[in-house]
Amino acid sequence: MADVAASDPIFSSYILASAADLTEFVWKKHVHSIYLPIAVIAVVHAVRISIVTRLVSGGKQSQLPLFQSMVLNMVVLFGGSTLVAVLLGIQLPVLVSPLAIAVYSTVHASLYLSGLGTMLVHLHTATQPFMDIILAMVDALCRTEAIASYGLVQMEQHSSPSVASSFFAKLVIGALISGGAPLIITAFQLNAPKWGFVTPPWVERPTMLLNKDLVGGMVVVTTLTWLTAPKASSWTAWIAPHHRVSDVFARFLSVHPTWRAAEKPLQHLRSVPYLSMREAKIVSIVAMYCVLAAPILVGSVLAWFKRASQKAVPRRGRAPKSKKEAVSIVEALEVEAAATGVEATPAPAPRRRGRPKKKQ
């Protein structure tokens, strides 16, 4: 009983547990249990990766042939995990994932040949930023699962104790799994018809390494490690005592039934994780989604305000390019004059280019 109790987290939540059950159901739901035992979310993610491949290679102006586009599709899928495998000295995921290669390649080739891929790219362009906000949820779900089930597991099972216990190594692994593929693509120009190694732009401009994909991976690793590590409470001792952190969590979460039955005060619980892994994944998915969606929302709001300000204020200081523009400016000035009581000044007439003709 002591061993079971020691493995139980301090807190639990009905909402987080229900969301975890839903997430596990999504991953286990197959297209058909007999004829096509492939998870529905895997097919959805394959479509998402195909869209990313088309956008990376130029979108509607993509010039990549089918096979080259399929190779780029595999780089987008396995690029980050391949870098992780090379750094940790383990087997490459692409060598042990024949089913994933078949599914993602078939989906991408089908969209490429049928023209549906081009239609999806058009739809993505026409419905921005709403499509990006929706697809960010798919990215957050799949990337968090990859970091938790592959990256952190490989770290914990590493033969070197210094690597297995290194938090910095976990940050690097999480960042590469989430956004490592663009680093490879830009270094070898894999999104162009002719490949070649060049100085990557993220080397010339290191600020590009602070993009939302890499930062999101580090946020997921930090969240999972802090919520599930048995000794996480000692990491925040320099910020606040352990019982204060537990008291904050207790406002939003319920104490696990094991510790509630034991009637043990929170400040006496040591070397016990705050949450279980399945519930911590839900918190990490939400954190990843916020990191991915926040720049999209902020950029859209700023672009909307910019367009609104350009439409509201008429342009002055230059001649209008056409008669229609001159009429619209005059009308705007008349409305402004009616509101302020100041006489409107008409806009100058458009100037004709070229030398005037000589009178004969």
From TrEMBL:
Residues 350-360 have a biased composition (Basic residues). Residues 341-360 are annotated as: Disordered. The chain crosses the membrane at residues 34-51, 71-95, 101-121, 167-188, 282-305. It comes from the Eukaryota. The keyword Membrane applies. Keywords: Membrane, Transmembrane, Transmembrane helix. This is Uncharacterized protein. It comes from Malassezia vespertilionis. The lineage of its organism: Eukaryota, Fungi, Dikarya, Basidiomycota, Ustilaginomycotina.
